[in-house]
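note to self — DONT lose this again. spent like an hour looking for the file last time. sequence + predicted structure for the chain T wanted, 377 res
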Amino acid sequence: MTQPAPRNPTRTVRAGPVRIGGGAPIAVQSMCATHTQDVDATAEQARGLAAAGADLVRVAVDSARDAAALRELRERVDVALVVDLQEHYRLASEVAPWVDKLRYNPGHLHHHERKRTIEDKVAGLAAIAGEHQCALRVGVNCGSVAPEYDSRFPGDSVGAMVACALDHCELLDRIGFSDFVVSLKDSDPAKVIDANKRFALERPDVPLHLGVTEAGLLPDGEIKTRIAFEQLLAQGIGDTIRVSLTLPNDRKHEEVEIGHRILEDVQHGRFRSVPELSGLNIISCPSCSRVENEAFVDLAQKVRDLTRYASEHDVTIAVMGCRVNGPGETDDADLGLWCGPRHVNLKRGTEKLGAFGYEEVLDRVRTELDALIQRRS
């Protein structure tokens, strides 16, 4: 029986009642898929996730109405809350009083207030977090790395992610803010392993949030996640985890349950064989409050069912639920779909093929997949 290595000696970061790093138990978290301003639904789902064993529950804030709802949500749930700011970092001061942790994506800081430097924006976020005793997560994603890093590391998405994360750690160090964790996520488990190992060598003091973004549908999503988590946790890397699956709202708690099962297996030296990820690869983002049409989950399942005949072909198809993840995080796929309120945008690599109805797009996916297989054969 192989036992995992001792945990990396990271510092402790507090997110409300939850300790992350510093030898604390590995925290499991998940994200609500409800619209945050629907306080009844969000509170119910947050309580369900907490009952399943979530130590932290993340919600998205995409508008002033979402931000205003957080005060009531805070009063109605007894679990550490995390806010995902994405492109809405300017709402940080409105949400920080009611949550325990703020997540910002370095790749989205350049979209707004272009006259302000990145350093100034990060300093502003750190000041707000410090004032309200919030932790920060520097959340770096493969599909939304800031453009300057893509330019510096052409063809090396892992190098771009790691450099971005290290630079933001240095910014926060200079500011004197230390209550932060880092995540480096990709839909490819091999890249997640590589990125986190590289980062941990450079900054063993910084707690790491592990996740395979857009892991997709079960059972493949659990397999991809296990591959990354087993490799990293066995080497002592990782202080909090999130399993990201494409699930309907009433099954979101399964992310938490799977996370706990993986932790228990690793703790007891139970490692499953790691399959080669060859053949058809369907990646899809976790259902969250940014999904613009609930038909997204059904569409992901239909795409998987439709394409089973191509299981032996090395083809990646990405299905994304919103405009935040869609445009960038489908670029590396052979075929990419990202969902709007009424139409699905279809891409071949970075080439846009058009917008199609939710049922109409399936026929076009089949046509494009057949053509791709024929070209490669």
